[in-house]
Amino acid sequence: DIVMTQTPLSLSVTPGQPASISCKSSQSLLYSDGKTYLYWYLQKPGQPPQLLIYEVSNRFSGVPDRFSGSGSQTDFTLRVSRVEAEDVGVYYCMQSIHFPHTFGQGTRLEIK
Amino acid sequence: QVQLVESGGGVVQPGRALRLSCAASGFTFNTYAMHWVRQAPGKGLEWVTVISHDGNNNHYADSVKGRFTISRDNSKNTLFLQMNSLRVEDTAIYYCARDRYGGSRWFVVGADSWGQGTLVTVSS
Question: Which of A7, A49, B56, B95 would give a disulfide with B117, using CB separation of 3.0 to 4.6 Å?
Answer without folding.
Answer: B95
